[in-house]
Amino acid sequence: MMKVFLISALFVFCVASLWAQDSKAKKDFNKAQKLAWKLSFSDECTSNWQDNWVMDGERSSIIHSEKGMDYFAGTEAHNDSCHTVLWTKKEFSGDIKIEYDFTRLDTSSLGVNIIYILASGSGDGAYKKDLFEWNELRKVPAMSVYFNHLNTYHISYAAYSFNKDEPEYIRARRYMPETGKGLEGTALTPEFENSGLFKTGVKHHIVVIRRDDKLYMQVSNANQIRLFWFDTREFPPIQSGRIGLRQMWTRASRYKNFKIFEL
To answer: Do the beta carbons of residue 184 and residue 176 sit within 8 Å?
Structure first.
């Protein structure tokens, strides 16, 4: 009986602790929303993506319409050449806010969408801090090239593992390049599963904020709004870089009204 009581008490404590953390995250996010943000980048995504973006990968495609930018990765699963990344031509620094409309177009249960936040090269050897100095090394956009050689924050969403029994998830990382450890030791906490978001064809509005040692992602649609947050305190801070949109093979998405703000 005592064992059952202790387990129940521990469960209640954990739930209360998580609730308190979520409550604080919401308050901090709302405060961050009200800061004096200055618009630094704007793309309606209805024409001429080459004006604002550079693409990694040669098997992806983009179709514009008044609905936005329909962005398709390659269709062959498990083929690294079918990954794709769009990078902003502009670089950003410090605390940052990113807003855009996102609609999932695929029905794939494999792979992830990722937003890279303040990305730059490691500066080691060929992997110069300016990403655009080694575009040729990313013509095949294998994931390992990025997590082995970039300084960046990464949030994966509308995301699935390669095991069909595992749930949809939202997770974040801070890459630690040139360690030889790959993704080991890069996860940010907490992580979130079964968000109930990102159904195919449903438009979502996404707000990502990097503020001090926290990352926030608020996702809303016509029926719900959810906030996800991640703690970066255990990692070296990142001060500047580009924004990137990765789609793994088989993934397709629509983007519209993409805006980036700095303080």
So the answer is: no
**Unique residue bearing structure tokens 């998830």:** 169
Query: What's the count of helices (H) and strands (E) in the chain, helices before strands?
Result: 2, 16
Predicted structure pTM score:
0.91
**173 near 182, Cβ under 8 Å?**
no
DSSP assignment string, 230-256: EE-TTS----EEEEEEEE-TT-EEEEE
Tokens of 45: 């995504």
Cα–Cα distance list, 55 to 52, 132, 258 (Å) = 10, 10, 16
Determine whether 231 is exposed, middle or buried from the number of CB atoms within 10 Å of its CB (0-12, 13-18, 19+).
middle
8 Å CB contact between 45 and 51: no
Q: State pLDDT tens for residues 114-123.
A: 999 999 999 9
